[in-house]
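Protein 1 of 2
SEQ + STRUCT:
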Amino acid sequence: MPHRPKLETYLALADEVRSVASSVADEVSRKLRESTRAPSFRDRVLVGLAVKMYNSFQCLRKDAEGRCLEAMHHLKTLVETFIYFHWAARDTGGKSARLVYARTIHDTVRFYKQNKGYVDPAVYDEWVKQLSTATKGIENEWKGFRNRRLTQLARDVGIELQEWYNRIYRLACGPAHIGDLLDHMPGNAGKIHLGNTPTSHLRAEIALDYGLHIMWDLLKAASNYFGLGKEERIKRLEARHNAVRML
């Protein structure tokens, strides 16, 4: 394999992700249309989380291509959704998926309650009703879940996901907030530099590296769950990725 900067190779692999994901989406859509039964609520939630992960990855890829430190912002979103996806997926009965869905409505209700000028009272009341419907029959579980932190959900799934939270999510949180302030401050000479910082290229590379790992996991899970038979192709791409990151 001829030498190429890691980031360039990661970007090429990200294009492969787009190709595989498009194929997966088309085939799953066809299966759902041809099925004699509607998809379960659990499946709809998981697909929604998967699509959010894919869209976040595409935004990450675009920033990484521009060598932008802001790729880390999208990695934070990607890892958070990744944790919710695995937490909801482990429950085949669908109750966990309902709780994740209810949290999204709860957050909307809380926002509108604190910012009353955004919507008419009737709209707010409708969101409150939706939350009541979403949690009907699982009120006790919802009471225990609604204030649980992301790190607790990761721990529920297992040590590996807990490590992802500690090592990757927390890593991405710095640039997503003001943890990278030092990178943006002018030196003693007072020269102000707009645009990318000296660490932008490295951070973009790291973000895309971890983003690719998440996408391989997601695509393999989708292929396996829907019986698409794409696991070997994805594993070959993953092996190429691992070979490059060891250089």
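Protein 2 of 2
SEQ + STRUCT:
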Amino acid sequence: MSGEQFSDPFEVQRLAMVELQLRQRGIRDERVLNAMARVPRHLFVSSEKQSRAYEDQPLEIESGQTVSQPYIVAAMLQALELKESDRVLEIGTGSGYLTAILAELAAQVFTVERQVLLHQRAKERVEQLGYRNVVFTLGDGSQGFPEHAPYDAMIVSAAAPRIPQALRDQLADPGRLIIPVGSEDTQQLLLARKNQGMERVEVLDGCRFVPLIGSQGFPV
């Protein structure tokens, strides 16, 4: 569900990001590329960091968190193979940047954030851009969002020591879940597919994310 039109002084940089950092590095999902060409990443970081918003690197945001680098966002979304009819659960709203991209790609997005400031600011940003298919909540993301389960797809933007059982339980059948798993310092990006009651897990790549804090994640 596309956001509203707005004056965008960073359009050239964003389109260059899509072509040079994503398409030329192997991102082939046109829906993902088009969504990332539309969502203004510079509006999800502080004004001091806007000039760097379309570099291929993570950027610090409030509460000691980060917005992931564009390539890893695109790679995760491509692996998730989202459909326009999907109901998607996002764990770790953060800045709201990925939330907005998900809103472009899926029918409904449900997103969980544990930090009050991040939750409030992400909600403001996403709603100001005109997205109306997102449900925001504050809570322990490692417990998922059971009120609206099951979900066709899940994407976790923080690293867990293992795939939380709560997320497995809330995943539809068939369904897909992508999550970084490992220690707080070193992780692997896992893609789990559920089909006819069976789960198949594929290791995609090494990665490094902030830790998922919660009862089925890392302790505070």
